[in-house]
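Students often ask what a holo structure prediction actually looks like on paper. The answer is less mysterious than it sounds. You provide the chain, you provide the ligand, and the output is a string of discrete structure tokens encoding the 3D arrangement of the protein together with zinc ion.
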Amino acid sequence: MVVRQQWFLLLCKYLQMLKTISKNKQFKINRINLTNNMGHKKVCLECRKAFSIYNNGAEEVKLTCPQCGVKVVLMPHRFRPPKKEDIKQWSLIRFLIENGFLYQHVYENHEYVKYPSSMDEAKEFVTKFKSQAVPIKG
Ligand SMILES: [Zn+2]
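The corresponding structure tokens follow.
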């Protein structure tokens, strides 16, 4: 009988834990949605172009390129797109995006880390800050 009670208590604890986890998850998702709609740029890697989004969060943002129709990537407003002709910089950006770095803030010792400006730096960067990469939505 005692054993059974202990089991029950354990089960309750476990369920409580699951509840907390899913709550945290929800909170995270809400936050992403909110920031996605505020002060962002749509970036098309095919056209090598950035489009500013003017949206108060009420409207759904169409995530396709107005120019070529390919799926765009959402970047923070502070992202400064290189010139269309600057293939080198654009391939660097593509590399960072593919590794989960969409110009979100990356931290080291509670300080912002500067984004890399060369491919060599970028390779080091994505390895070093792997734990801060964001999952890319397919
Ligand atoms: Zn495009």
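Residues 44, 46-47, 65, 67-68, 70 surround zinc ion (CB under 6 Å).
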